[in-house]
Amino acid sequence: MRSDLILIGVIGKAHGVRGLVRVHSYADDPATLEEYEALQDEQGRSWSLRWRGADGVAELRDARGNLISDRTAAQALVNTRLYVSRDLLPETEEEEFYHSDLIGMEAWEGTASLGRILMVHDYGGGASLEIEGGLIIPFTRACVPEVDLAARTVRIVRPAEVSGEEGQGVSGRSAEQQV
Predict the structure, then answer these.
(1) Residues 83, 103: one domain?
(2) 42 and 83: one domain?
(3) What PANTHER family does UniProt report for this protein, alphabetically (predicted)?
């Protein structure tokens, strides 16, 4: 798969018997998915999408314009990831980043490397960064005060709840003191 592709949506379950599917959009405005002439999947196939409902229901067409028109074909596409070429996306504002820009960056705490960012999670309550070794850091200015896109690094300041030594709990007390 090309490295310049950005994940913009995922096809969910089939909706009805006429080939409609639910699509989870990662765009700020889901309506923009209709504007992209060619959404690509992981197999390199191209798709176009038209919304057909207010709750994420859409119809899909392949690169030749063939409509997915039955439930069986729609079900075969469940969990298909849809990507768009990076150059088609708007430039980010200052202090705004695409998740794909952050993944793979080296996380530093002082002079120590914590590892690379593996994933950016966002479940609606704010984004968090998953760093090698299982460390999860809230993606806030307080915890990530510096993002250097050119150097591909981030500076981390762990909150007290996750900065304790091995064997210590979130309060900073040792295991013996917590009894």
Answers:
(1) no
(2) yes
(3) RIBOSOME MATURATION FACTOR RIMM
Instruction: Please give the C-alpha separations between residue 87 and each of 11, 36, 156, 162, in angstroms, as whole numbers.
Output: 22, 12, 29, 37
Q: Are residues 18 and 61 in the same domain?
A: yes
Residue owning tokens 């176009």: 48
Kindly report, residue by residue over 35-84, the tens digit of the pLDDT: 988 899 999 999 999 999 778 999 999 999 999 999 999 999 999 999 99
CB of 130 closer than 8 Å to CB of 121? yes
| Shared-domain flag, residues 83 and 11 | yes
Report the alpha-carbon angle 14-100-102, nearest 5: 140
Provide the residue range defining the domain that includes 47: 5-88
What's the CA gap between 66 and 123, in Å, rounded? 34
Contact, 69 vs 15, CB < 8 A?
no
Q: How many CA atoms lie within 13 A of 7 on its CB side?
A: 16
Q: Which of 9-23, 26-40, 145-159 has the lowest mean pLDDT?
A: 26-40
Does 66 share its domain with 132? no
Q: pLDDT tens digits, residue range 147-176?
A: 999 999 999 998 877 655 444 333 333 334
The residue assigned the tokens 């968090």 is 128
* Residue 47: φ, ψ to 5°: -140, 150
